[in-house]
Every structure is written in structure tokens, then in C-alpha cells.
Amino acid sequence: MELKTGKFKPGYLGQLMAYLRILDDHVKKPHENPTIGIVLCKEANKEYVEYIIQDYDKPMGVATYTNSSDMPERLRMALPDIEELKKLL
User: Which pTM value belongs to this model?
Assistant: First the structure.
């Protein structure tokens, strides 16, 4: 998984492809399925990503995220606070 703090860039898929190749060739066991790669970006245009990703033959995808300050209040309130999370670790 690659975490990016900005908009999706096509070069992210090339970088991810290299990581997947290395993992599949040197880490993955023969009985395991191919490695799946995910680029997690702050923003991505779905149609653009789908157009760019179609030429890659490794299983990979692009997803977006929001941080808690971008969430609606009702969802933010449903999350545990940082102190609760620290106790779980």
C-alpha cells in the first residue's frame, strides 16, 4: 500500500508496479496469490485512474481517503478518540 498526501499521479502506478514485481519475485511463496497493490491518495479522478490503470497487468487499485477533520460531525463522533486507541495498543 502506498499512501500519498495529494492528488493521484500516473507515476504512482509505475512505482507500485516495481514494488509488486519485487514482492512477487522475492517474497511471495509459490502457494500464495499475486500481491495486490493499492495507492491511497487524497484525491483521484475515477475515470482518469481507470483509463491509466488498464495497461497494467498486476492487481492494483487506487482509492481515496479523508481525514477526520474532513468528515461530517456524526461520523467523527462515532470514532474512538486518540486516548482510547492508545489503550488498545
Answer: 0.75
